[in-house]
């Protein structure tokens, strides 16, 4: 293996990359850096995600820039603002000791005037999104006649996003003599099209097999019915208390919905997609990079190429339409030789797609079981204990109170104290998962292990819960939260009754209640008034399939939900604060039906 020094980079660059922590070149860097330092031939470089492609083009380009001239000599085009910022930051780090060299990111959604001001001062390297670059060319502020290097990063995505005309326009303003470089993790039809349209007999250099996934990423899939996807997602998150994940959804709307649901269920989540303002996107990315957010829900476009350190899990909420996209998604973890886990939550009919993905990434998927509630609770419990042990004690603050605290606890044995303490944190979690379903389904769509009384769908089979039909629904401003609150206020419903699933429809709703309390609850509800309407409650006839509103299902099914009795199950990130104290009198079970 050659060293960076042997590749022929200047001392000031070597000093900078050593400081960043690059000891040896990655395979793609070892192959492309000498090529770019010695020839003018166009280049297509293909290498796995996270294998250091930015430095593979960045270092040799920086090495050759004439810093004495202020003219723009290299332009890097990429699909998103986040990526432009990221690449420009990487370049800033590479050029830390290179005097007089300016790198300017230009992208839409932020002040063009500030970018023009910087351009007027001169920037030898511009990193930009196509739309803004076109705008700056049209305003005659960005001049490309001295361009020697054009880098197309994530070029296929730029075409997918409809930037073809912009790319044509931009490249037509660059000299014929330029060297055009295309770096990608996947070889697709678009990549070929770009090489035909914009490149001149390019050399192709690749490291690893075409489209291969990152080396140390393990791939798992879970088969669940569509309506259980969100529950499966939450169980996966609950099973990994220190998860630092990116969750991919197909559309902006789905991204927003899943993120909202997670946040409302008490998870530390937010989203990144194209409907957000630049300021919102920056804020989300900032929080995520600092690990103030534990889960980022994103569209493919928004997260393409993102390099965030130590993401533990990539979760595919569904399989992407373009299967190659999976390579880019899963590559957000396992970067720079590290390990990672990529999970696909799939429907019963998706096994064919999994086999196709295996061919593309050149690795097998392992079929996994969505963990049972008990396993999740155990995991959370031990993680909680670890957190307790790791909690730092502020001796100065606590010491003066200690005598009093010890007096308060003197009646309790050590064991009793621990039990109470753990229960305080865990009662809600335990209740939530107590009667939880087996969410796994087999690839023909049937349950792997239908636990009868625990199965929630298709009507309860067991005698544990009875289902009541109520004549009030969404149009009466009813939701799971208002229903539970309403019942809390009915003195004829005693404390501690457990409720199961709440299914609110437009004109009516269903409420599961412990069978032994069915009559008490029915009697209490009958004749009461909700929002000015007389309530009628009766036993639900039959046990047919119910169609639940997805968002109600989501929101009502969380051990972390904000009004919960527990104080939250935070990993080390946890800023998912919850109000404490106001415990509802009515207990919810089997999926914490309380909002
Ligand atoms: N020689 C090196 N030694 C150690 N780390 C490196 C080296 N080169 C790059 N890295 C680090 O590897 C990570 C991934 O690099 P980069 O973002 O360039 O990957 P990429 O190949 O462009 O990935 P993607 O295809 O997902 O865009 C970065 O955090 C970068 O700092």
TrEMBL record:
SUPFAM superfamilies: P-loop containing nucleoside triphosphate hydrolases. GO terms for biological process: response to temperature stimulus; ribosome assembly. GO terms for molecular function: ATP binding; hydrolase activity; nucleic acid binding; RNA helicase activity. Residues 2-30 form the DEAD-box RNA helicase Q domain. One of its GO terms (cellular component) is cytosol. Keywords: ATP-binding, Cytoplasm, Helicase, Hydrolase, Nucleotide-binding. It catalyses: ATP + H2O = ADP + phosphate + H(+). InterPro entries: DbpA/CsdA_RNA-bd_dom (IPR005580), DEAD/DEAH_box_helicase_dom (IPR011545), DEAD/DEAH_RhlB (IPR044742), DEAD_box_RNA_helicase (IPR050079), Helicase_ATP-bd (IPR014001), Helicase_C-like (IPR001650), Nucleotide-bd_a/b_plait_sf (IPR012677), P-loop_NTPase (IPR027417). Pfam families: DbpA, DEAD, Helicase_C. PANTHER family: ATP-DEPENDENT RNA HELICASE RHLE (PTHR47959:SF13), ATP-DEPENDENT RNA HELICASE RHLE-RELATED (PTHR47959). Belongs to the DEAD box helicase family. This is DEAD-box ATP-dependent RNA helicase RhpA. It comes from Marivirga aurantiaca.
